[in-house]
Amino acid sequence: MFKHTLRSFICIVCVYLFKVVTFAADAQSEIEPYIEYETEPVDMRELESLYYAHGVTGASASPLSDKYIALTFDDGPHKSYTPQILDILSEYNVKATFFIVGKNCEKYPELAERIIDEGHEIGNHTYSHLTNIAKADEGTILRELLRVEDALHELRGYRPRVFRPPGGIYNATIDRIATQLNYTAVLWNVDTHDWKCPPSPRIASEVLNKVKPGYIILMHDYVVGASNTPAALRKFLPSLIESGYRFVTVTELINMSGTPEE
Ligand SMILES: [Zn+2]
């Protein structure tokens, strides 16, 4: 049982991981969420040892017989794409998780409130979309996470429980801080690459071809350029609903899986 759950856990939190990305260490005054990361499939054995050595908990898959999945949207809120996506989710009665960037939350607090008020989950994606998080010191990472918490607390007294590091970059320092702040680190199983603004049918087919029960889907509600994510949602949501899929928040998905048996 433990091994099974362990394997499920590995599946849910990773697809791309641990490719160290180097960036110029210049101070960024603007948000740059759209740097293309070089990624490669993770070595499952390595990931297994890393996650458990570092005590990351939660985030195992739901049983395969249950067709629950979690849609996630990163980097927002965005003044036009976030409302469009919220409208569509509401239309289909679908709950999702938004990994927000603190700066954008401060810019569009009414959208963060709307996300909460409509029953979606908000996760922490750092204050400034800290793209060089792998090289940041502990104090910087802590400040980045806590500033998001402060912004949300001021809105609705909301406390995020899940954290997604920008770019899915993860190491022992990030892990230690996430654990210290009582976060569950969450990555993804299917990356739609929607931030590159591919045509909506391509985003939709990426989801429809790769989705499996218990999976986390990565999308973005903040995109530079003309986002096709809302149009893609209109294409794949009816198909998934028709095939019996149900949509829950990331925390709900984690809670469905139970805890590993020792
Ligand atoms: Zn991001």
Give a written overview of the molecule:
- With 262 residues, the chain is of the alpha/beta class.
- The chain has one domain (66-257): Glycoside hydrolase/deacetylase (TIM Barrel).
- It contains 10 helices and 8 strands.
- It has helices at 2-13, 44-53, 81-91, 102-107, 109-117, 138-156, 172-180, 200-210, 229-242, 250-257; strands spanning 68-74, 97-100, 121-124, 162-163, 184-185, 190-191, 216-220, 246-247.
- Strands 1, 2, 3, 6, 7 and 8 form a 6-stranded parallel beta sheet that branches. A two-stranded parallel ribbon has the order 4-5.
- Strand 1, helix 3 and strand 2 form a beta-alpha-beta unit.
- Bound molecules: zinc ion.
- Residues 33, 74-75, 125, 129, 166 line the site of zinc ion.
- Zinc ion binds at residues 33, 74-75, 125, 129, 166.
Brief account:
By secondary structure, the chain is α/β, with parallel strands linked by helices. The protein is built from 10 helices and 8 strands.
- Look at the helices and sheets and give the structural class: alpha/beta
Average pLDDT number:
79
Bound molecules: zinc ion
Report the portion of residues in β strands. 5-15%
Distance between the termini: 9 Å
CATH class category? Alpha Beta
Topology (elements, then pairings):
Blueprint: H1 2-13, H2 44-53, E1 68-74, H3 81-91, E2 97-100, H4 102-107, H5 109-117, E3 121-124, H6 138-156, E4 162-163, H7 172-180, E5 184-185, E6 190-191, H8 200-210, E7 216-220, H9 229-242, E8 246-247, H10 250-257
Helix pairs in contact: 3-9, 5-6, 8-9
The protein binds zinc ion (ZN).
Zinc ion (ZN) binds at residues 33, 74-75, 125, 129, 166.
